[in-house]
Structures are given as structure tokens and as C-alpha cells.
Specification:
The chain is mainly α. It has a domain of 132 residues. It has 5 helices and no strands. The longest helix is centred in the middle third of the chain and has 38 residues.
């Protein structure tokens, strides 16, 4: 009685037909269906199964708003640092003249404005960085930031000077673009997309 290949412990005895699906498949023989684990289905396409699908890349208007947030933050940081130096220099001059006590309150108010400006710059940078992975809270915070930026730009018109009016127009344009990009349906889809 022969038991097949002596080096294959799973080999079939010679002279007997091979049972389908048992042992290792022999070369040239097709794999028999029905035995073992089924193959895993391919992963779904990004955004498949969700209403409207999730975009694979950030929409262009949102990329523009993100860049504008970084530009606004950079300008606020530069203006805040320059303003802090101007306030400190003015306070030094006031101290040397002997009127330092009278201007301490104004200097303190000026430094408070610098701190608020730098805090808004930090918020703009934070929002811009979080655009890629943030959720709907980032979108809502950006809407509030853009609305405040628009209000401050409108307040620039109250100054009545030509430089204030130009700054107000530029601020209105930047704030309007940021706000408009956040209220679109593509922004809603981007910030509500599934994250794995």
C-alpha cells in the first residue's frame, strides 16, 4: 500500500482521487471555492456612502480663506510689535519729561490693545492650522472671527481719514471672503466629513 510522497505529510495516497478543498492546492489545479475565509471586500472609495460624498481635497475658496487667515495673523503680529515699541518709546519720553504718571493709564490701555491684537493673531493662526483636520467647531469659530473682523473694518471707516478708509476697504474684502467661504455647502461638507 502506497501513501503518496513521503516528504508531504498531507499527500494523498496513490491511486485514490484527490478530495476537493483539502490540503494545499497542487500546482496547476484551481482553488476549490467554499473552504477557508472569504476574501475581504475592497475598501470603499473616500467619501462613498455619505450624502454628497466627502471631498478629497480642501475646496479652493477655503484654501484662499486659510491663506488670508495666515496673512491677517502675520500683519496683526507685525502691527502689534511695532505698536508695543511705539507705546514703550512714548512712555519713556513721557517719563523723561516728568509726565509719566499722567500717561501711565494710556500706556496701559495701549498695551492691552496690543495683547488683544496678538491674541486675535494667535486665534487666526490656530484656525488656519486646524482647517485640514478640524470639525464643525472650527468652522463656527472662523465665522465668528470673520464677523468680528468685518465689524472692526467697518469701525475703521468712522476714523474719517483716508488711510483708515483704505484699511477698512481691505479689511472688509478679507473678512467678506473668509466669511463667504465658511457659509458655503462645500465648507459644511469639508468640516463634517468623516475622519479616520
Amino acid at each position: 500500500m502506497s501513501f503518496g510522497d513521503p516528504n508531504n505529510p498531507y499527500g494523498q495516497p496513490q491511486g485514490q482521487p484527490q478530495q476537493p478543498g483539502y490540503g494545499y492546492p497542487q500546482q496547476g489545479q484551481p482553488q476549490q471555492p467554499g473552504y477557508g475565509y472569504p476574501a475581504a471586500p475592497p475598501p470603499p472609495a473616500y467619501g462613498a456612502g455619505y450624502p454628497g460624498g466627502a471631498p478629497m481635497t480642501m475646496p479652493g475658496l477655503m484654501q484662499t480663506a486659510r491663506v488670508l487667515l495666515f496673512i491677517v495673523a502675520g500683519l496683526q503680529i507685525i502691527i502689534g510689535i511695532v505698536l508695543a515699541f511705539v507705546i514703550a518709546a512714548a512712555q519713556d519720553v513721557s517719563d523723561s519729561v516728568g509726565a509719566g504718571n499722567a500717561t501711565d493709564g494710556l500706556a496701559g490701555l495701549g498695551f492691552l490693545m496690543v495683547i488683544i491684537m496678538l491674541a486675535f493673531a494667535g486665534l487666526a493662526i490656530f484656525l488656519g492650522v486646524k482647517f485640514s483636520k478640524g470639525g464643525n467647531g472650527i468652522r463656527v469659530t472662523t465665522i465668528v472671527y470673520a464677523a468680528l473682523y468685518l465689524l472692526l473694518s467697518i469701525a475703521n471707516f468712522a476714523g474719517g481719514e483716508a488711510s483708515s478708509a483704505v484699511g477698512g476697504i481691505i479689511g472688509l474684502a478679507i473678512g467678506g471672503i473668509i466669511l463667504a467661504s465658511m457659509v458655503t455647502s462645500s465648507a459644511s461638507q469639508w468640516f463634517n466629513r468623516p475622519r479616520y
